[in-house]
Write a sequence for this structure.
């Protein structure tokens, strides 16, 4: 009985302690918290909102890139404004961005030195209590307690896994520890208490780089970041081990051994009336880079299909197979203002296999690419290979890469074509 | 209203060609042929008369009796004197108009009727033809005639329709993603044959309505043979698309084949169904072909979006037995791919400048 009371007492005191702490944190930090608004110049109304927080005494405010992306892409159409806790608002200027980590720095005019958030020196430890701040759905500033759960597994760009409710509108808001130091920035949610944060080191780096040398042109800065990021990603993909794997016991396909590519499988083995047996392996990068609401890049997708005819003529098998072959689309979303139309070519290609089986394969291969309009030397690439050398069996190999250089795309294609063959 | 000789000829090929010389006009024969023709210069009746005076009108006492209510009972008479025929209007209510086929004003003033002239009385037309008029040379049978004779044979028509149905059934079979039974295939092939038979029967109907021989079997035989040929050209196009790489361009030549076949079909349809001049037949066939292909191109063009986010590529794949071309190696493929990057960059820059 005594132990029970002690336990209840401890639990109660802890929860009240947490509430108290949240209140204290909120009261102290509110002056440095802002709502960031993107105002459409023509209508004078806000077109999107997010949160931001001051990180220097002279008025530098950190937020998410995706909060201010419409301004970054179309500065002639929009302006950025802040709204502080007292209801004051004024225009701010965009000074630096990090599109890969979804961060941006904006500058407000300040007359006197102002309080600001300090960035933490060290990483939080797993299970540590954190507080996410922001302005969800334009409802006013709130504080959300949550837990640090380490870095998101299998991700190419580091993200903190935060257990706590992060809602839209809180994007760009800070996440602080008990010492009121920033350890992350709200960036995304997977619903049901799963939130993702950008680690604070990324912001520290952006801030230091900005202090050293502010970027001359935001578009050029984005272009350079995309180029560097694709180089890092493609180098990792190309230089990692490509494990040969059997698909349905008949085909050899490559599985790239990098943690951030996740593979899924499916087949129609349960469908008795299907005319063709179909087995699919699909590997994709579970993240991409946001450039604007209609333009994403940085995605990678590999798709392999093995098909076998069940009691069909060759002609019919190939006719149905062609329907699968003719449906490939882009791997990322992009519009007329962002990219050119796809340029494609096709040929019959018989690669010298790099797999251990040494079996040959004859493919009809399609290669398509489209260029980015604002970011020179970056392309979306798509490849399709359809085996045409077996009467009743086929391998369809396919990949899409978004935002890569010509050299990386061709190197990857070369490796990919040679890694697919018959068993 | 002056109707020239060439126009008359165009309108009706059966009309004998006037090759008369001025001498013929001076010495007109007493024997004369009067043709009742429609406004479109189609022949209704022909009267051969061998007398010096001919009376024309609605009354039963006339040599030529016309039922047209706009014609007077004793409307006009033609008389032969001093080697020429003259017409004389008997103060008719609606008058008489002479459409001379020559610009001979003097003849008209003197009411002289020449070979090939058309007399308009009431709403009827009469053409005067002299018996010494020379006719055009006999037209020899074209080589198509024997082909058409072969194709219009009931067995040949049956075989071509059966072949067409076989092809239609095969297409249905190929396109069906699930299991399919024989009766389903037969019904869909039959429906397809009925649908495609609308074209030849339609033409036969039109030629029947325009007072020509319908020749249904010949139209059916020719049309279905060409439908089969069109399908074969499509198959050939598929095989070429499958075997050729995008840098080898057979595209234009192979896409012109169905255009040529369609033109031939329309030309033969009109050859079988209608008696028109070669020039006219050519114009009509070209127009229909242009309308068909130009129209479908325009529809495609108008449907084309301003920006297409989907890649457009040639996805033709066929069973290995259709593969005849050798394959490239990966290096060649990649070298050609490399050229696309330049194209894409250029396209992006061009759009930016616009």
């Amino acid at each position: 009985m005594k132990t029970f009371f002690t336990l209840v007492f401890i639990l109660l005191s802890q929860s009240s302690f947490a509430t108290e702490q949240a209140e204290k944190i909120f009261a102290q930090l509110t002056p440095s918290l802002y709502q960031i608004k993107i105002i459409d110049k023509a209508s004078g109304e806000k077109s999107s909102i997010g949160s931001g927080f001051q990180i220097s005494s002279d008025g530098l405010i950190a937020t998410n890139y995706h909060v201010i992306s419409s301004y970054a892409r179309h500065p002639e159409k929009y302006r950025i404004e802040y709204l502080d806790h007292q209801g004051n608002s004024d225009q701010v200027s965009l000074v630096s961005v990090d599109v890969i980590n979804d961060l941006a720095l904006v500058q407000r005019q300040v007359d006197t030195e102002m309080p600001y958030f300090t960035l933490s020196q060290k990483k939080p430890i797993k299970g540590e209590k954190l507080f996410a701040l922001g302005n969800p759905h334009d409802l006013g500033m709130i504080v959300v307690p949550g837990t640090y759960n380490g870095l998101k597994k299998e991700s190419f760009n580091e993200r903190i896994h935060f257990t706590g409710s992060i809602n839209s509108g809180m994007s760009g808001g800070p996440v602080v520890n008990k010492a009121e130091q920033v350890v992350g920035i709200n960036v995304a949610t997977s619903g049901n208490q799963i939130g993702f944060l950008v680690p604070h080191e990324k912001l520290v780096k952006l801030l230091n780089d900005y202090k050293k040398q502010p970027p001359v042109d935001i578009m050029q800065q984005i272009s350079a970041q995309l180029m560097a990021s694709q180089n890092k990603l493609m180098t990792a993909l190309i230089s990692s081990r490509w494990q040969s794997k059997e698909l349905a016991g008949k085909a050899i396909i490559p599985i790239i051994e990098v943690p951030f590519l996740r593979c899924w499988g499916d087949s129609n083995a349960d469908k008795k009336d299907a005319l063709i047996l179909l087995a699919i392996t699909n590997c994709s990068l579970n993240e991409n880079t946001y450039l604007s609401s209609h333009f994403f890049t940085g995605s990678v997708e590999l798709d392999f299909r093995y098909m076998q005819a069940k009691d069909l003529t060759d002609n019919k098998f190939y006719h149905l197979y062609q329907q699968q072959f003719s449906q490939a689309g882009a791997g990322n979303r992009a519009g007329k203002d962002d990219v050119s139309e796809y340029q494609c070519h096709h040929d019959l290609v018989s690669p010298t296999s790099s797999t251990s089986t040494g079996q040959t394969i004859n493919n009809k291969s399609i290669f398509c690419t489209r260029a980015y309009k604002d970011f020179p030397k970056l392309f979306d690439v798509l490849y399709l290979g359809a085996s045409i050398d077996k009467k009743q069996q086929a391998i369809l190999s396919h990949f899409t890469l978004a935002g890569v250089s010509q050299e990386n795309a061709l190197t990857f294609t070369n490796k990919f074509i040679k890694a697919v063959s018959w068993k | 209203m002056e109707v020239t000789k060439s126009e008359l000829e165009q309108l009706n090929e059966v009309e004998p060609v006037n090759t008369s010389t001025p001498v013929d006009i001076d010495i007109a024969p007493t024997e004369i042929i009067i043709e009742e023709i429609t406004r479109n210069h189609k022949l209704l009746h022909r009267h051969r008369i061998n007398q010096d005076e001919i009376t024309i009108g609605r009354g039963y006492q006339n040599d030529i009796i016309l039922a047209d209510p706009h014609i007077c009972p004793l409307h006009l008479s033609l008389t032969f004197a001093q080697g020429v025929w003259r017409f004389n209007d008997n103060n008719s209510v609606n008058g008489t108009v002479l459409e001379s086929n020559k610009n001979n004003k003097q003849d008209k003033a003197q009411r002289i009727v020449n070979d090939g002239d058309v007399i308009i009385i009431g709403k009827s037309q009469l053409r005067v033809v002299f018996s010494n008029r020379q006719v055009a040379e006999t037209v020899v049978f074209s080589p198509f005639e024997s082909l058409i004779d072969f194709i219009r044979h009931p067995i040949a028509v049956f075989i071509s329709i059966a072949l067409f149905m076989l092809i239609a059934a095969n297409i249905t079979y190929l396109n069906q993603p699930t299991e399919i039974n024989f009766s389903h295939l037969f019904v869909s092939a039959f429906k397809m044959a009925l649908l495609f038979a609308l074209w030849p029967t339609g033409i036969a109907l039109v030629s029947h309505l325009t007072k020509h021989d319908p020749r249904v079997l010949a139209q059916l035989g020719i049309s279905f043979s060409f439908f089969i040929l069109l399908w074969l050209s499509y198959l050939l196009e598929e095989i070429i698309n499958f075997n050729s790489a995008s840098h080898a361009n057979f595209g234009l030549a192979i896409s012109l084949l169905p255009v040529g076949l369609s033109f031939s079909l329309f030309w033969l349809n009109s050859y079988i169904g209608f008696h028109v001049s070669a020039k006219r037949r050519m114009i009509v066939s070209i127009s229909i072909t242009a309308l068909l292909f130009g129209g479908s191109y325009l529809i495609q063009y108008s449907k084309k979006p301003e920006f297409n986010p989907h890649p457009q590529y040639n996805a033709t794949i066929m069973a290995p037995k259709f593969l005849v071309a050798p394959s490239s190696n990966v290096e060649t493929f990649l070298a050609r791919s490399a050229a696309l990057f330049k194209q894409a960059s250029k396209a992006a820059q061009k759009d930016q400048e616009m």
